[in-house]
Every structure is written in C-alpha cells, then in structure tokens.
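#lab-general

N.A. 3:47 PM
ok so I finally got the sequence cleaned up, no stray characters, all 278 residues accounted for. can someone with queue access submit it? mine expired

B.Y. 3:52 PM
send it over

N.A. 3:53 PM
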Amino acid sequence: MLLTPSDFQNAHDIGLSDDAIAHVFIRDALVQSVDQPGALPWRFYKQMGLSAMTVHGLGKLAGEDHIAVALHPEQSEALLPDGFKASGLRSWFGILDEGMLGIALRAVQVLSWDRTHRFCGACGTETELGSHERVRSCPACKLTVYPRISPAMMVLVTHGQKLLLGRGVNFPSGFYSALAGFVEAGESVEETVHREVMEEVNVRVKNLKYFSSQSWPFPNSLMIAFTAEYDGGELKPDPAELIDAQWFDIDEMPRIPPSFSIARALIDHTVQQVRGPI
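B.Y. 4:20 PM
back already:
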C-alpha cells in the first residue's frame, strides 16, 4: 500500500534550489527517465533546458528538500529530452521506488490545487499564495482555499468464509474489488458505508471496523477503509454502479487490485483474518 515515507517531514516553505529533489510535472503527468526512473535534483532538469512555472515545497526526507515543480505549458512532452517521458502516476506504479512515488502522489495534488484555484470562486479576483501555510486567499472578498480532499469510504463485507466484491462499470474484465463511495455533505464516514452498501448491492451491514486510510490522488481522494459483517438483504447490484457483485469464497478469489492499493491491503488482511491461524 503506497504511503508517504514514515520519516518524511512535511514543509511548505521550501524554495527552488539546484539541490532540491524535484518532482516535475506537465500538468498531471510526472516527468521521468525511461531507462533509470527516479527522483533527481532540480539542477539536472535545469541543465536539460527545462524551466519552472510553479514551485511548491513538499518537505524533507533524509536531510534532502523535496519540491513539486510544474513546467511552463509550452514545454510539452514532445519537447522533453530524448530518454524522458511524462506519464500519469498510475503508469509509474511498480516502476518507481514506492517512497518516491508516495511523495509524488502528494506533489500532484498540491500542483493541481494551485492550478485550479488561481481565481476566487466567489468573486473572480486573482488569488494570492499564502506565505505561512499552504493556502490561496482572495485579496478582495477574503475567501481562503486550502488543498481540497474528497473523503471516500471503502468497505469489505464478510459473510462467514465469503467476501462481497463488486465489479465497477469501468473495471477491466474479470476485475473485482471492495465496495467504495464518496462521503456526502452532512454524513459521517460510517453513515456513508451503510448508505453506499445498501444503494450499490441492497445489503445491510453491521460491526464496522476501521482498517486504514490512503491518499489517492485520482484526483484528490482520501480512501478510508473498513471491514463489516453481513446483516441481511438479498444481493442485488445497482446496474448504474456495478456490472456484477458476488460473494467469493476466500479460497476462490477473482482478479483483485494490485498490491500498491489500499483495496488489496484490505482484502489480503481480511482473508487472513477469516482464515485464521495456519
């Protein structure tokens, strides 16, 4: 499960310097070497002729500064030096070091927030970047906008030796995962679990237990995962949300999410708990 390294120290007041480790983006696409992907100091990118449009401090790791850099719009992928490409973060899963990828997940969210809140949503005035915290403020009407996070619940429902998994309308063929949904205004996360499970598969649940959480920047979610037990209802998938939903025996699982996702960690943990000591 991808997380920011435990010894990473968050800091926003880090400026552009040649020695800072740069997580460089063209909009939401991360720039990397094809043959030797990894985090590099800004001087390397500067020597390639690239220039920064926007820079945000991210934090420190092992004594090194980390920054998020958005390139100028005219510097498209076609203008990158030979051997480099810009691709969405999903394409770098399993290729980049997980610690660096965890920081890049943070970087893309900060840059996206900055890019999409240049002007006040209330009065249209150009916003200003705060100096003491990560915030954009309107000098006219004083509206303040912090990086936006959309909380979403995920739940794996158990029924004896079986797990309830669904196949979303956009999932690849044969791919199943735990149920998930966004928290609505006025809801607690627990209320969302009960509502989403009923709406998606017509099932009631009980005994919710918190498992873990994971930042998921597609585009700006915080996945909050639970386990729950079946408490009644006839399984009936909502066709607007799911192509299929089934109870799967823990020894006859379908294709499930890869190891970098919280969904896979949740499934693996629950299978182990249901199976019990070996």
